[in-house]
């Protein structure tokens, strides 16, 4: 005999589903923030397949691990021969073993001492902004530094998200007070600088921070923080760089010409950098940068 009308059952079931989703989100954030080891989550999932951890999809679990994005997850799933719909609790014995071995290797080679401060620089229009934006959207564990600038906001740009827009007097004050980790005048136009405090606080809290700045700024960071990792974003070819600059259509032909002259000089700086990433495809370049943020073996 029913003890409650069907609507009550439905409400209770949907409440339970929301609670279960929340619980899974909590586990994922804990993995992403590094406060819970992925191996510990696997152990819990295999012990009680119907528990929160056991109900996590393998894809959700993998993408929660810092430096594993969607592209890499798809590749791992294929290698481990696990279908994308599988939950951790629903894996067979062989799949469990393969996944555990994979995660143990990953933790051993990526855990703990990842490179915390990473600079992404490169010539004009190579795609720095595009790759940084992709990382912001797909890798929420990576903190992107928000620069201060004296340039005017463009339509759609948000104060404190795109930049901190300040006037010349305030920028002078920031420099004098030592509040900038580095700063530079970019494209002979406006001044841009990295607020020091936000970077230091994020690193102290155990987060990785990415600075998308120009090449002069990258050199200043190297002086101020020698432990930082410098990544140079390269275009697939010179012609493609020209196409991207022209295609973006945000500069006049004269300004484009000037920037291309600067780009030639900047490309010569590539050897000063720890790593080079070619921006063929935005998602792949972003994944490479994120991987470098964690790899201990990556440094030259
Ligand atoms: N040194 C330095 N360069 C920055 C900083 N923030 C942005 N930049 C660089 O300033 C340049 C101009 O950026 P932006 O005004 O967004 O214009 P866009 O590159 O033409 O879209 C880019 O090369 C950025 O990498 C910063 O804090 N410090
Ligand atoms: N991998 C890519 N393939 C094709 N076009 C790209 C790629 N990355 C960026 N772009 C395009 O190139 C132009 C310049 O990119 P942008 O991010 O503004 O460069 P930067 O910040 O280095 O000056 C933009 O129009 C952008 O959409």
TrEMBL record:
Q: Which SMART domains match?
A: GuKc
> Where does the UniProt annotation place the signal sequence?
none
Which GO CC terms are listed, alphabetically? Answer: cytosol
Q: Which domain of life is it from?
A: Bacteria
Listed EC numbers: 2.7.4.8
Location of this chain's protein in the cell: Cytoplasm
Instruction: Output the SUPFAM superfamilies linked to this UniProt entry.
Output: P-loop containing nucleoside triphosphate hydrolases, S13-like H2TH domain
- What keywords does the record list, in alphabetical order? ATP-binding, Cytoplasm, Kinase, Nucleotide-binding, Transferase
**Alphabetized InterPro entries for the sequence:** GK/Ca_channel_bsu, Guanylate_kin-like_dom, Guanylate_kinase, Guanylate_kinase_CS, IHF-like_H2TH, IHF_actinobact, P-loop_NTPase, Ribosomal_uS13-like_H2TH
Molecular function (GO) terms for this protein are: ATP binding; GMP kinase activity; nucleic acid binding
Please give the catalytic activity noted in the UniProt record: GMP + ATP = GDP + ADP
Q: Where does ATP bind?
A: 122-129
This molecule's function is given as: Essential for recycling GMP and indirectly, cGMP.
> In which family does this protein belong, per the annotation?
Belongs to the guanylate kinase family.
Query: Could you identify this protein by its name?
Result: Guanylate kinase
Which species expresses this protein natively? Agromyces badenianii
User: Lineage of the source organism?
Assistant: Bacteria, Bacillati, Actinomycetota, Actinomycetes, Micrococcales
């Amino acid at each position: 005999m029913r003890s409650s009308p069907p609507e009550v059952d439905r409400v209770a079931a949907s409440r339970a589903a929301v609670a279960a989703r929340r619980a899974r989100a909590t586990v994922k954030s804990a993995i992403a923030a590094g406060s819970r080891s992925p191996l510990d989550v696997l152990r819990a999932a295999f012990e009680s397949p119907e528990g929160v951890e056991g109900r996590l999809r393998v894809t959700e679990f993998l993408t929660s691990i810092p430096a594993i994005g969607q592209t890499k997850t798809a590749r791992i799933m294929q290698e481990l021969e696990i279908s994308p719909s599988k939950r951790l609790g629903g894996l067979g014995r062989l799949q469990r073993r393969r996944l555990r071995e994979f995660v143990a290797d990953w933790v051993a080679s990526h855990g703990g001492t990842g490179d915390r401060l990473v600079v992404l620089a490169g010539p004009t229009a190579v795609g720095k902004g595009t790759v940084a934006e992709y990382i912001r959207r797909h890798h929420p564990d990576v903190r992107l530094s928000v620069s201060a600038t004296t340039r005017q906001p463009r339509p759609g740009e948000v104060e404190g998200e795109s930049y901190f827009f300040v006037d010349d007097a305030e920028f002078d004050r920031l420099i004098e007070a030592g509040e900038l980790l580095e700063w530079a005048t970019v494209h002979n136009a406006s001044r841009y600088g990295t607020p020091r405090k936000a970077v230091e606080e994020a690193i102290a809290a155990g987060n990785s921070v990415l600075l998308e700045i120009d090449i002069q700024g990258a050199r200043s960071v190297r002086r101020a923080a020698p432990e930082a990792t410098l990544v140079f974003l390269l275009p697939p070819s010179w012609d493609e760089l020209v196409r991207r600059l022209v295609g973006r259509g945000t500069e006049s032909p004269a300004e484009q010409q000037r920037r291309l002259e600067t780009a030639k000089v900047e490309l010569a700086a590539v050897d000063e950098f720890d790593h080079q990433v070619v921006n063929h495809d935005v998602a792949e370049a972003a994944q490479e940068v994120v991987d470098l943020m964690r790899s201990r073996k990556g440094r030259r």
